[in-house]
Amino acid sequence: MVLRMLTGALFCLTLLLLALPTRAQTPVTSVDNTARQIMVMLRLPPARYRPGGSYTEAYAGQLGQAARSALVRQLAQDNRLTVVETWPMPLLGVDCVVMALGDAQTDAREPEQVARSLENASDIAWAQPMHLYHGEAAPNDPLFSAQPVAEQWHLAQLHQLATGKGVTVAVVDSGIDATHPDLLGQVRLNLNFVDAQPVVGEWHGTAVAGVIAALSNNGIGVAGVAPRAQLLGLRACWQTTPSDTVCNTLSLAKALHAAVTQSVQIINMSLSGPEDRLLAQLLTVALARNIRVVAAVPGPNGGGGFPASLKGVIAVGAGPPLAAGAVQAPGRDVPTTVPTARWALVSGSSYAAAHVSGLLALVRELAGTTPGQLVLAQQSAIDACATLLRQREVSQGSCSPTVLSRQTRAE
Prior knowledge:
Blueprint: H1 8-18, H2 31-34, E1 37-43, H3 55-59, H4 65-78, E2 82-89, E3 94-100, H5 111-118, E4 124-129, E5 132-135, H6 149-152, H7 155-161, E6 168-173, E7 187-192, H8 203-213, E8 230-235, E9 237-241, E10 244-248, H9 249-261, E11 266-269, E12 271-272, H10 277-288, E13 292-296, E14 314-317, E15 327-328, E16 334-338, E17 342-346, H11 349-367, H12 384-391, H13 401-409
Parallel strand pairs: 6-8, 6-11, 7-8, 11-13, 13-14, 14-15
Antiparallel strand pairs: 1-3, 1-4, 2-3, 5-10, 5-12, 9-10, 16-17
């Protein structure tokens, strides 16, 4: 059975593996590099975008390319900035141009100040500082007893009703180890928006992926909440240490743009940071297209945080107290996949959010084109069984395995 897959022997092995040193990925993007960057949105008709193109490639040979390139150079020169990167975002009808201020020792200006001054130009839709975001996970004490989190939601019984078949969940996170034996075949695409290198498996993204869609009934490891869902791995974050994952506005925006254009049904964002205009607009487009967006609330008390604070986004914490409007899901001592064919116990609202994304994949399988609704119990905890039973037009009753079994037999 799915709920017995994590046997005592495997748990002992897991604790042994947890004690082994973890190979940290070398950060490919410096946090310091983004601290003094701004993003300038140039108005642009979406038809000029060519997928996969950089700024120069997208306009090569097109009328107006020279003028637009000259505009970017002039903006940089007039404002003592350096052009770092450009990226077309046709969903919003803009070109995003990343520019950098000089070193703080030689340039006393703040990114917010420069961004405000640039917004006066007629060709600029808006400008903003580059923001940083962090994965909402906490390193776990390996001596804590494993918690059978799957039993809290009667996972085996849920899988009698749905497994996430036909649903794609975008995991906007650090790199997913798609070669992990519990994730083989689960990652439909694994794209990198941090650098031009192949995706490498990183701790946070791989752990989130396992919670959502680890294989079931394969004789090893754990079972994901939606084991037949497909994952769209969108590496927008990078691992700085085994316990810290960082993203920025541009990498997240690229990943969100890809998620929407790939027509996913659910976007998981197990991260938080400051409010951001560009990300908010992209998320609004996603929500308008009936894409469910799930985000982790920050910190042990689950207070505030973007994108969880954005209207329409499902904010998830691992336990009370919760921010107003947030929901609670399992997020402590969660066994899941980690890189190099290992399993480990993890804790944090990142993994609570991943549980909800998996549950929404089950709901979406049953509900079809409609997103469906979550059912809450006490202290804003999600009643997973009642949530699925609602899709089966069962209006009342407890959500015990007995009720689920009776409903399944009645089909």
